[in-house]
Amino acid sequence: MAPINVLMVGTGEYTTGFVGGGMSGSDKKVGVVGLTLFDLRRRGKVSKLSMVGTSGTKFPAIREHLRKNISDVYNNIDVSFTSFPPDSTARDPDAYLSAIDALSPGDAITIFTPDTTHYPIALYAIRRGIHVLITKPATKLLSHHQHLLAESRIHNVFVFIEHHKRFDPAYSVAKAKAKELGDFNYFYSYMSQPKFQLETFKAWAGRDSDISYYLNSHHVDICESMVPGYRPVKVTANGSRGTAEALGCVQGTEDTISLLVRWEKKGEPEKVATGVYTASWTAPQKAGVHSNQYFHYMAANGEIRIDQAKRGYDVAADAAGQIMWYNPFYMKYAPDEEGNFNGQTGYGYISFEKFVDSVAAFNEGRVTLDQLDQRGLPTIKNTIGTTAILEAGRRSLDEGRTVEIVESEGVWELK
Which distant-in-sequence residues (6+ apart) come within 8 Å of 62 by Cβ? Predict the structure, then answer.
């Protein structure tokens, strides 16, 4: 079969690296989604590419940014794409409808938009036979997550949640090691980003979503994938406030959120484990890393500790005025010896290639949706527990109580 066409929904930092009229100040200066798909097209794995945002007037500057910072850097790689809405349109929040309508059944979309928009965009695509990759969190509501799962089965399409930390080499090895250490006992994680990211996220931070949905989603998913024999049953959340509000975020925006989760072993509820997941977007501006990220996993017969903030690679430059620890395992931006993009081994890239390869195999009849679930990929079915925990955390904060998670015969609900 011919390679699939892919529509990129969302034109911001993660897709293009273009924020606020120029290059992002984060570690994603040229984006992830667009660059990865341009390279997958170079390699013959995808065909036509398109991109949709809410403002067409941004596209001339985005194209120039991509030409200068991707095409001119990587051997004139093709960075062309069809855009929606037209360049003359100042704002059209429904432009994704016509962009999806331009695709054919069996094609795919990637969704990197504010959390509240994931569900309607994905649902519209699924009902038109389009495969879907959604950035984490899949949805804000457990009911929406389960509805997308049901619709994906009705319309026979693959839905993949872009939990790229599953493909981090250290984390993937840790998942395998955890199987050898006996019953799950304790998991603690921390993930942060510097305060300047709130400028990037100011349109939705504290309004449409929170830092737990944005960052805790990484480690909650990692933990869920490491302990398939356990299920979450209770969540209590606590949030710190003050800094984000002082930086201009809406009243009530949490700086840091911690989730305390009770896990029980399936079939042996007397065996209980504890998970603590903390995320912050008010870390120091010059911490030396864009994202502190680490976890501690303890089981009956051993423990695992991973620090993926300082990876033994640091750079001191006069221009920065400090030591910086970079993450070459996520996206490797240095060209190869021929001048081509050389980041195919980065776990940010691998995540998209896994999706594209899975869609190709499914379209060709080489694999079923159930078989893709069984591979342990972050599919819509394999990530329900993560959404349940994240929504339970939000409810716990809003209602000042512990929230229970109940699962019966594959159906989940919060109480």
Answer: 11, 16, 18, 51
pTM listed for this prediction: 0.95
Strand, coil or helix: 346: coil
Annotate 206-256 with DSSP letters as a single string.
TTTB-HIIIIIHHHHHHHHHH-TTEEEEEEEEEEEESHHHHTTPPTT-EEE
SS3 labels along 98-141 = HHHHCCCCCCEEEECCCHHHHHHHHHHHHCCCCEEEEECCCCCC
| Percent of the chain as helix, strand, coil, to the nearest 5 | 35, 30, 40
- At 64-113, the pLDDT tens digits run 999 999 999 999 999 999 999 999 999 999 999 999 999 999 999 999 99
Which residues does the chain have with pLDDT short of 50?
Answer: none
CA nearest 362: which of 146, 153, 121?
153
Alpha-carbon span 26 to 322, nearest angstrom: 16
